[in-house]
């Protein structure tokens, strides 16, 4: 009877250890989310005729945040540190994990996955890649690419009917960013804009693209892309509706789960054998008294 009671106590202690471990783990997760996802909300500035690179634009965001009195926890990890994998992000508002790789070559075994849309009031057809180039083969060279841009970095393009060349809308990025309540993807350093100058450098401005993503769980297709508009035939805006833009549960930390399991297993063994050792000692003492 005593042996059964000791083992019940051992089981109770083990359960208590498990509860404490999960409680501490949940606190750690919450703390990490709060520290890692404290971002600049509601900055919806679209760079107009500036041709900023991603790093320059992030620096601009940091300076803007300081002027607005935002917390200085907004560090150099403005978007790319949000998730360890390219083309993914953790929404700083809902803490949901968003994975856009299913819309890109990253989720297509490395094969290009172009998305086309017609600019009805623009008179051109656009082809975009999400986090990757839409080109299925290289088109390098001044005979094919306007302004001699590198086709392997192009994130979107259209064909110029006059020159017969591809016009780059910007170099693709694998870093989604949440601006306000919108998930966005920015492409910079495309082909040169006509008769426009970058005010920060005095050089000809380059084309850039802003892609916004809208969660649509009811879509039967993988995604739907539409042309929204452009500014001075230099900055372009597109909207993508897809269930891939919907937040899901955050990726599990497999390494942490393994360590937790090992800790629980070791604790269970210690409690079990210590209870059995205590039982044997008590029994031996009783036998000596007899």
UniProtKB/TrEMBL annotation:
What domain of life does the native source organism fall in?
Eukaryota
Principal subcellular localisation of the protein: Golgi
Q: Where is the signal peptide?
A: none
PROSITE patterns referenced in this protein's UniProt entry, alphabetically: MRH
How does the protein's chain sit in the membrane according to the entry? Single-pass type I membrane protein
Instruction: Show the GO cellular component annotation of the record.
Output: endosome membrane; Golgi membrane; late endosome
Q: Which InterPro entries match?
A: Man-6-P_rcpt, Man6P_isomerase_rcpt-bd_dom_sf, MRH_dom
Q: Which UniProt keywords apply?
A: Disulfide bond, Glycoprotein, Membrane, Signal, Transmembrane, Transmembrane helix, Transport
Name-wise, this protein is MRH domain-containing protein
Question: What is the originating organism of this protein?
Answer: Meyerozyma guilliermondii (strain ATCC 6260 / CBS 566 / DSM 6381 / JCM 1539 / NBRC 10279 / NRRL Y-324)
Q: What is the lineage of its organism?
A: Eukaryota, Fungi, Dikarya, Ascomycota, Saccharomycotina
